[in-house]
Amino acid sequence: MIDLLKKRGAYNRYKVGLVVLILCFLLFLVRPPFVEASDTGWDSALTSIDQLHDSFSALELTNKQDKHQIQVLRKQNNEKLKEINIQVQLIDKEKLDRLKTEADKSQKKFAPLLAEYTDIGKKATEARKRKDHKSVLLFELKRNRMKASVLAARQEIMLKKDALTTAKKQASEKSKIVKDILVPVQTLKKQITAENKKITDFNKQRIAADKRYKAAVKQGDAVKVAAELRLIVGGLSQIHASQKKINEWETMIRSAIYAAEAKLPK
Asked: Phi and psi (nearest 5°) for 131?
């Protein structure tokens, strides 16, 4: 891909060079009479145009290559980040599902026994209020007979729930290790968004300068052409600097992603 871009860039530079020669010739032919009084400025402008076009071609090719590299890296980062987030959600999932199933089964298994025990207790309380000592005695006998089974049931349920709670805590701790490594990623993404906004602004300025540049060419104003071309090259330089930052930040994101992936449970 890069070789192809280099070939295209060489071809584009050849075309641009040819255009520059034609442009310089035309500007020389159509320059207005007042230019005769300022040949030094005119010649200097033509020299600048030739040099600026070389810088323009080189920067435009570099920026295209940088943009492509950033797009590839960003796509890889986003796909990998999505994959890691899914894996984080799956940490100890089979174990947690199994423990939850066991806890639910235990709760369901002893639910009738516990409900009956609770119901007998309520009836005994009501009988006491009525001062029905015979009924209180019968209810207490039933409850005392069930008490050992109830205590065993409650113990089993509690153990199952405790095992599930402990497993959830352990899974959460494992997830936190991975998530903490990825915390800087959001900050870097915000910086990239802000830098992309700057690039958008630079491109708007470049479009405006390009319109003025074309108007100056039609007017045969070499000095103005050089000035606007200088602005365009300056904008491309700023875009290059911004894309260099973005590329560095995307590389940092990639490093964080692979560091987080290394902390995922095997």
From this structure: 60, 35
From CA 81, how far away is CA 215, in angstroms rounded? Answer: 48
Packing angle of the helix pair 39-89, 2-30 (nearest 10 deg): 150
Task: State which residues of the chain have pLDDT below 70.
Answer: 1-41, 43
Cα–Cα distance, 242 to 130 (Å, whole number): 85
Amino acid at 31: R
CB of 247 closer than 8 Å to CB of 72 = no
Q: Estimate the crossing angle of helix 222-262 against helix 133-219, to 10 degrees.
A: 150
Nearest-angstrom CA–CA distance, 20 and 58 = 15
Pairwise CA distance, residues 244 & 205, whole Å: 20
Q: pTM of the prediction?
A: 0.72
